């Protein structure tokens, strides 16, 4: 398979995920204090938004790369 086609498939998949999930979240544990046998931690959850416009552009660009890759001669 051609590299441009593989790149197009990758962009299309990532664009679809960006449209469906509209971002991703991750959780971090932060230690507040540690005194002897007493420990306190806090979990911080952060959401990183991804614009639907960016996801749509990646999906359209990936589809275009797949079409261009299919039309090129081997």
Structure description:
By secondary structure, this protein is of the alpha+beta class. It has one domain. The protein has 2 helices and 2 strands; from the N terminus they run H-E-E-H. Strands 1-2 form a two-stranded antiparallel ribbon. The protein is elongated, with a radius of gyration of 21 Å. The chain starts with a helix and ends with a helix. The model has no long low-confidence stretch (mean pLDDT 91).
Provide key terms for this protein.
single chain; about 70 residues; alpha+beta; 2 helices; 2 strands
Main sheet, how many strands, which sense, barrel? 2 strands, antiparallel
Instruction: Report the β-strand fraction as a percent range.
Output: 25-35%
SSE order: HEEH
- The total number of structural domains is 1
DSSP strand tally: 2
- Rg over alpha carbons: 21 Å
Q: Uncertain regions: pLDDT < 50 for 5+ in a row?
A: none
Total of DSSP H or I helical runs spanning 4+ residues = 2
Shape: elongated
Share of helical residues = 40-55%
Structural class: alpha+beta
End-to-end Cα distance, whole Å, is: 9 Å
Strand order of the largest sheet: 1-2
Average residue pLDDT? 91
Please summarize what this structure is.
With 74 residues, this protein is an alpha+beta fold.
What is the topology?
Blueprint: H1 3-21, E1 23-35, E2 38-49, H2 52-71
Antiparallel strand pairs: 1-2
Helix pairs in contact: 1-2
């Amino acid at each position: 398979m051609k590299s441009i086609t593989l790149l197009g498939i990758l962009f299309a998949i990532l664009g679809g995920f960006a449209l469906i999930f509209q971002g991703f979240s991750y959780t971090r544990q932060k230690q507040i204090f540690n005194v002897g046998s007493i420990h306190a931690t806090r979990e911080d959850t952060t959401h990183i938004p991804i614009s639907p416009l960016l996801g749509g552009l990646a999906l359209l660009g990936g589809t275009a790369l797949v079409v261009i890759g299919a039309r090129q001669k081997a």
